[in-house]
Structure of Adenine-specific methyltransferase:
Amino acid sequence: MAQTQIDKIFAFLDQTTEKLRKFLNVPYRDALSENIFNIIEQKTHIEDGYPTAAQAQELDKLYQNFELRDYPLWDVKRAIELTIIKAQKVDNLDVNLLMTPDIIGTLSALVIAEIFRHYPQPQLETMDAAIGTGNLLIEANRELQKSTHLRLAMHGIDNDYHSLEIASALGEVLQNKIDLYHQDAVAHWLHSGYDLILSDLPVGYYPLDENANNFQTKAATGHSYAHHLLMEQAMQNVHPAGIGLFIVPSQIFETKQAQNLVHWMVTAVYLQAVLSLPQSLFASPQAAKSLLVLQRHGAGAQQIKEVLMGQIPDLKDTSAIIKFKDQLQDWTKKTFVWEK
């Protein structure tokens, strides 16, 4: 039944997005975000005469015969994800603009739940420094609310305006409040003092060398890796003892720029864990990613003697997941002592 509902929602989203895309002569992704807001309002937004009044009337007839509130929220989310996946294919988006899969949000929540199990407050001020469509934060928050007392107050930065539009639309549909900032996340942040940074970091070279001059993780020559700079900037914007959870390439310590990154990690922050994500999530070993846990100095934080290293098991392997949770609990007891 649920799949039938998802298919029905997707069909409507796709039909109306395709119409709006044609009327506005824009990429599928751009039409999608505007279309979601139109569906919520059941009315077509017209700007500078586009779409035309006749085209808007055609869309309005469709919108007014479809009510998103008739469907479970998470069926709606799944249907929107399918349209985002279609946008990725139709628009041939860069790999750094692809949506973070639900499973990575679920696995991140598993680690967050243990780190913050004894945290003095249940709401974690959480920033995603490369929020994209917002799916990582939304899914991690959903999992935490299902199984723990924790919840995320969600904030996100991205330099891609159209990704932020999708994140805003998704948050609106799911009744999730997300504070969004359109800016270069390597540059100065407007706010700081977060409890947690959770980011699936874009991989590649950062083009503005002058912006990287004051970073310890900058390259000795040429362009620096954006994901290195983003980690350093993010960790400057958590409060003392604040946590950074970063999804990064598993070969991050094997590149030509790894030396400066490692030096920064052992002098400016505490590297508390390196956990490989399940290999089954990736098309090849070269595409594999890992989850790094970093902690800012101060407020009683200290470097654990043995950094937690290992493989996060596949969620289908129940016994392995139970053992992994036990391992996490033992690690967090030794690593994180939160001030009351």
